Amino acid sequence: MEITLVEGDITAQRVDAIVNAANSSLLGGGGVDGAIHRKGGPAILEECRALRASRYRDGLPIGQAVATTGGNLPARWVIHTVGPVFSSGEDRSVLLRDCYANSLQVADVLAASSVAFPLISAGVYGWPVEDAVRQALTVLNAVDPAHVTEARLVLFGADTYTVAERVAAGFS
């Protein structure tokens, strides 16, 4: 699987699936989640409401992933995953890595060949950017999905992109 870093807006990515750093309600929110729901339109929210009424009555658990339509987005699907809130007193990195691994697994089930990820948990959930990139790359480099041939890590802002390039250059 080819892994690329891209500075930009995840809602503009022309890939089979984009990953949404969702909140557990699946009903939209701020940051990446809000942008995806706004640009994707009401079809995404409609499918999320149906998921809440059936499989996820208590919300989507942290680290799990589920797909909906891409609505008006260039991507065919949105894969929603809930990242953990950063804690300096508790190691939640396994949950963060689960977000990437489970999203890739959902993409593979959908037979998506290209997937774009945001930097999960690095916004309002407070995960330090450098470590968030390291956690993402750890999973993306270790997994060998059957269908996904391209994974993009879409980084919002030049500063975040610069940190990600530095981490990726020293990654082994």
UniProtKB/TrEMBL annotation:
PROSITE patterns registered for this protein in UniProt: MACRO
Entry-linked Pfam families? Macro
What SMART domains does this protein's entry cite?
A1pp
Which SUPFAM superfamilies is this protein grouped with?
Macro domain-like (SSF52949)
Q: Which domain of life is it from?
A: Bacteria
Q: Which residues form the Macro domain?
A: 1-172
Listed name of the protein: O-acetyl-ADP-ribose deacetylase (Regulator of RNase III), contains Macro domain
Taxonomic classification = Bacteria, Bacillati, Actinomycetota, Actinomycetes, Micromonosporales
